[in-house]
Amino acid sequence: MRHRVLKNNFGRKQGPRIALMRGLVDALVEHERIRTTLPKAKELRRYVEKAITKGKDQSVHATRQIAAKYPNKTTTQKIVKNLSVRFKERPGGYTRIIKLGNRPGDQAPMAFIEFVDYNGPVTAKPDEKEEVRVKRLLARKRAKFKKHKRKIQNLSRKNNRPT
User: Fold this and answer.
1) Across-strand partners of 73?
2) Paired residues of 97 in beta bridges
3) Distance between CA 40 and CA 37 in Å, rounded?
4) Residue ranges of the alpha helices (H) in 70-125?
5) Is residue 115 a contact partner of residue 83, using CB atoms and an 8 Å limit?
6) Whose CA is closest to 53, among 44, 62, 40, 41?
7) How far from the centroid of its chain's Cα atoms is residue 36's Cα?
8) Which of 28, 32, 105, 155 shows the greatest Cβ crowding within 10 Å of its Cβ?
9) How far, in Å, CA of 82 to CA of 115, rounded?
10) When comparing pLDDT for 128 and 95, which is higher?
11) Measured at the alpha carbon of residue 139, what is the angle toward residues 136 and 144, in degrees to the nearest 5?
12) CB neighbours (10 Å) of residue 82?
């Protein structure tokens, strides 16, 4: 009997499941934070952490093993030259999972998976935000004026039509 044995096959056969994990690893390494379902994030964590630990070796053999599993060259290079160097002193636990709640369409639990030293995209400075706000306000005023002008022109045309 197999009591309480979890199946992490996501309803896919072996080939598509491996392709799914490769794609998720590529996306996470490239963007350093992705949004996916909670079960996929939990499974993805295993693959990414093993790859980074393998990359810490910095040997040609380790690089080739990572390249064999994840054929994308940029992914392999980033794991070996960037991520494994960033986490050199860390004994494990390179990723974190942040739960987001359920997806509206099918109520699937969603989560962010990111590296622990992820800082997020650089946001605009307060001065730039204020400038953008003023531009939007002026654009709204211009649009409102154009609408008002068109309305007056239409009324004028109706009044001045020959009968």
Assistant:
1) none
2) 113
3) 5
4) 73-78, 84-86
5) yes
6) 62
7) 8
8) 28
9) 12
10) 95
11) 125
12) 13
pTM over 0.90: no
Residue range 118-140, pLDDT digits in tens: 988 766 666 788 888 889 999 99
CA proximity to 46, closest of 30, 25, 60, 66:
25
Give the separation between CA 64 and CA 71, rounded to whole angstroms: 10
**Residue 84 has which token pair?**
């494994």
Closest to 48 measured CA to CA, from 38, 33, 59? 33
Q: Is 105 exposed, middle or buried (0-12, 13-18, 19+ CB in 10 A)?
A: exposed
Q: Which residues pair with 115 in a beta bridge?
A: 95
**Which residues, in sequence order, are bridge partners of residue 101?**
110
